[in-house]
Design brief:
This protein is α+β, with helices and mostly antiparallel strands and 587 residues long. It is built from ten helices and 31 strands.
Length: 587
Amino acid sequence: MCDSFRPFARKLIVLAVALAATSSQWSRAEESRVGRKIESFVLDDFRGRARSLDDWADSKLIVVAFLGTECPLATLYAPRLAELAARYESKGVAFVGINSNHQDSIAEIAANAQRHGIRFPILKDPGNKIADRFGAVRTPEVFVLDKDRGVQYWGRIDDRFGVGFQKPTAQRNDLEAALEELLADKSVSQPTTAVAGCLIGRVQRPAPSGNVTYSHQIARILQNRCVECHHEGQIAPFALTSYDEVVGWAEMMREVIHDRRMPPWLAAPEHGDFKNNPALDPEEIQLIDRWVENGCPRGNPADLPPPTDFAKGWGISQPDQVFYMSKGSYTVPAEGVVDYQLYVVDPGFKEDHWIQQAEVKAGNPAVVHHVIVFIQGPGGDRFGAPQMAFAPGMTPRRFEKGVAIRAAAGSKLVFQVHYTPNGTQQEDRSYVGFVYAKPGEITHEVLGGACGDLAFKIPPHKSNHQVTARRAFLKDTMLTGMNPHMHLRGKSFRYELELPDGTREVLLDVPRYDFNWQLWYMLKEPKFIPKGSRMICTAEFDNSDENPANPDASRQVTWGEQTWDEMMFGFYSTIKPRQDIAAAAPK
């Protein structure tokens, strides 16, 4: 379930597995939550200590937060909850976390609390009985209880993070506002807000039945479509490689599949034929639906497919060489804006190296928004050079036999790293791994290019501003893939090819661009582009208040490297035949 880019690193990978409840669903459920009295209960915390709601009998208010260890939005909000808990403790407000996810173990809950500096107790809710009592649906989701343990507020923490977007700061701090009003003996002015997040991994209620099983069908679908990213050590926030892990995400998995959020694929189907399209077939979706509806039967373990052989911690084969961005780590501050960091690394290439596979790894995915590694030849330009990247959902670069990126003797590696502070000081040392091909095996060299505009100006409050760029091909070219790139205001992107006779065809259309998924669209067969043709890239930007990811609709937006600025690049990859390589080689 994967392939792309996210403006808050997989934290935000993230947000692809989180789906907001609709306003209609929320309004129907509102009365059943707010005003409800919560009777006392007893649950064990992750240290094994029994805790009762009565333990906080002297507290003026209790904030009950339903959390998960792997949900990207729950991860993003963990530092905020820790900060609020510390600040309101002296005002008589207690914070309590509850984990009702079937798939989250006590050890994982403990590690998650330590990682995010959470000092308030987190209780394990076996069988999600307490989640059912509250009517909790997602993580993170908060309830505020008054002195009599009646629900006075139910909903989100604030509006900073959502599905596919992150604002620099929250515009409305809903939980904090509710606490302040209640502490001042006022009614909560907005007692309910819609929550974006992951569905709680509830225990399956129906007795497992039917002939669609995890072992026989579902494991194979996940292996073919999802496991490349959803395995240990990879960019996805949780693994989908075992029954126990998958069954806890079953309902959420079905939801994001039907919403077409997973597996991530943004291209319109009517244009282009792409070999890396991970979209599920209708038959596969029907099998997943039947499996979930029938209680997620495990099946016979003997029917399981052989596990996919991944090098430990890698999505490529075991690398021949690994290069780090620097000798030491970079300290990411807790708050503020961090300028893009550039590191030039000399790999010591005394002769040409042919890169068959490449994978960029974030040293600390919690604060790494993206890493791009450019191979810059002597005197070369990094933007025109072949590139590899880490970004949420972006898969490693792997080429067919005989096809590789050439790193010429004397080349440098340029690391461009973008950090997004998450509330606590962090360290990062990102890196890249290469698998080399033998020079005698190479038939084609991978090259890169870009069709873009650096001089655009997007007016304030404009919801559909178009920018067009053109790139002429001065010789016959074989196109192999495309990668559109914009920032938070990006709305749509289209590649067209104009042939020398003036006829046009659409190469790729992305009608609903999503900055969180910077996908490469790799053609099933290379596309011949005759000399004299032009690539025409048309990008549309939404700089209005209707765009929830928009940092500021009131400003004119120009080109810039930070996410609140914009970019307009239609990156593409091509291949050059071996005979050209041989002819160009130094004598």
